[in-house]
Amino acid sequence: EDRKVRFRCDYFPFVEPGVEMAIECLVCGGTGCRLCGNSGWIEVLGAGMTHPRVLERSGIDPREYTSFAFGMGIDRLPMLRYGIDDIRLLYGSDLRFLRQF
Fold first, then answer.
1. N or C: which end of the chain has fewer CB within 10 A?
2. CA–CA separation, 70 vs 66, rounded Å?
3. Buried b / exposed e along 31-59 (16+ C-beta atoms within 10 A)
4. Distance of alpha carbon 30 from its chain centroid, rounded?
5. Which residues on adjacent β-strands are paired with residue 48?
6. Are 56 and 37 in contact (CB under 8 A)?
7. What DSSP designation does 40 have?
8. Helical H runs in the chain?
9. Is the Cβ–Cβ distance between 35 and 27 less than 8 Å?
10. Is 21 within 8 Å of 6 (Cβ atoms)?
């Protein structure tokens, strides 16, 4: 099934500049629902160049070194695949829910 994907600038406190990748919500088709926070999009990846202050506080000279930070919301992929609208279900201990997978 075709889905829209977007890649755009975004803010994350530990990177400068930051970017995100989002996928059109599979539950609502982009119209807005509980899963996507009524935005129509699910963020699946955030990334950027590590902010120089983070490097400094880690004992790394930001004039000499740079780094790239990224995080993938891998837990969101099964939510999209199976239409799960509450991320807390993935981390709970309800065997009735978990045994479905």
1. N
2. 14
3. eebebbeeebbbbbbbbbebbeebbeeee
4. 17
5. 18, 69
6. no
7. S
8. 52-57, 76-82, 88-91, 95-98
9. yes
10. yes
Whether 48 contacts 18, CB under 8 Å: yes
Retrieve residue 8's tokens: 């755009």
Length of the chain: 101
C-alpha closest to that of 43 among 12, 13, 2: 12
Whole-angstrom distance, CA of residue 6 vs CA of residue 97: 31
Amino acid type, 19 = V
- Asked if the model's pLDDT at residue 73 lies above 90, the reply is no
For the chain, the straight-line distance linking the first and the last C-alpha, in angstroms and rounded, comes to 21
Element (H, E) at 46: strand 41-50
Kindly report, residue by residue over 76-98, the tens digit of the pLDDT: 888 878 888 888 999 999 999 98
Q: Which pTM value belongs to this model?
A: 0.72
| Structural domains of the chain sorted by starting position, each given as residue range(s) with its CATH number in brackets | 5-98 (3.30.930.10)
